[in-house]
Amino acid sequence: MVKAAVLYKPNEPMPIVDLAQDAPKAGEVRVKMGAAGVCASDHHVMLGQTTFPMPIVLGHEGAGVIAEVGPGVTSVKLGDRCILSFVPSCGYCHSCRTGSPQVCDTNRLTGTRQYDGTFRLKDNDGTDVHQFAKLGVFAESIIVPQQACFPVAEDIPMDVASLIGCSVTTGVGGVINQPNIRSGMTVAVFGSGGVGLNAIQGAKLLNASRIIAVDIHDHKLEFTYKFGATDVINSRSDDPAKKIMELTGGGVDFAFDTFGGAITTEQMMDSLRKGGTGVLVGLAPEGMTADINMVDLVRNQKTLTGSYYGSASPHETFGKLVDFYRKGLIDIDSLITRRYPLEEINEAYDALGRGEDGRGVIMF
Ligand SMILES: [Zn+2]
Ligand SMILES: [Zn+2]
Questions:
Q1: How buried is 65 (Cβ within 10 angstroms: 0-12 exposed, 13-18 middle, 19+ buried)?
Q2: Positive or negative CA dihedral for 83, 87, 89, 94?
């Protein structure tokens, strides 16, 4: 039996339940959880903005220790401390073979089930329980494909490792892995949540000449200076595109929407200079569409692109981020502002919903 927070219905608190857990099958491992990040993507599911099969154990930003290995596991061993990837790539689909394992087709097809299409968790009445992103890190221990595990050394704390599993990779990776971004460019980042703060420090890492943070909360904007913002704009009191035009004399080279909304994406495109690139990083609620000025896109040769999980192989980005963290080039410790036991998961999400600064982490 394992303790896990289970979502049975949207907009209802998740009870902590004892679930039956199978042993790892071929190519799978059991990971004893060390830390799990309180990320907004899970919140979208809790609020019913993203539909997922239920019951489900949420949580996709985590780190832990390998506690059991299934038959044929060769990439990790018992006792390895690991960052978990929420896209455990298969290695043989079209996306994996063409160098984009972060959008692995097999992973997308099998979703909240393991690669063989079956489940590892059962409720006390025998119902199969889904694992968000094949992980479901809001549980004491989890069964996952070995490909989800990226071993890290002892010097990387568990809470830091867990954040590398999603927000740091999505934010820093989403900036530094853009093919045409260069030192000295101007950057705007919409949204100052976990991913936004990391996009800001990604821009700082690249020596962006100007890093403009845009949000609707003054206290969140104040927090962005710590991670490298040079200017801040409250989009409730100011028109961000107009203000960015003024600050930069014609717009930024790169803008990132880490919030993921129609309004922020439209503002992002309006704040670009000629030839500029807008990168949509945040996941919008399902079905949302944005109004894009088509003439502006053509006459000003703008680019609009999406970025998923750092736009590159997650394991490749994890390795770089661990190095940056060791050298003090990125700050992950200051991102973590609140720590909770698993029993307080619902409170942790209430705090996220209220827009509190920085990241909450569940510590096991
Ligand atoms: Zn996340
Ligand atoms: Zn694949």
A1: middle
A2: negative
User: Could you report the per-residue pLDDT of 119-128, keeping only the tens digit for each?
Assistant: 999 999 999 9
- For ligand 2, the distance from its centroid to the CA atom of residue 103, given in whole angstroms, is 7
- Cα separation of 299 and 295, whole Å? 6
Residues in the chain: 364
* Residue 319 Ramachandran class (φ > 0 left, ψ -120 to 50 alpha, else beta): alpha
Contacts of the segment 155-159: beta carbons below 8 A, 24+ positions apart: 155/326, 156/81, 156/322, 156/325, 156/326, 158/34, 158/35, 158/63, 158/64, 158/81, 158/363, 159/34, 159/35, 159/63, 159/336, 159/339, 159/361, 159/363
Paired with 187 in beta bridges are 211, 254
Report how far Cα 72 is from the mean position of its chain's Cα atoms: 30
For residue 85, give the ligand nearest its CA. Answer: 1
For the whole prediction, is pTM greater than 0.90? yes
Q: Is residue 215 pLDDT above 90, yes or no?
A: yes
> Residues 6 or more apart from 154 whose CB is under 8 A from it?
81
Q: Are 202 and 176 in contact (CB under 8 A)?
A: yes
Query: Residue 96: nearest ligand to its CA?
Result: 2
Which structure tokens are listed for 117? 């299409």
pLDDT band, residue 286 (cuts 50/70/90):
confident
The catalytic residue positions are: 39, 41, 44, 60, 166
Domains and CATH numbers, the chain: 2-165+331-363 (3.90.180.10), 171-308 (3.40.50.720)
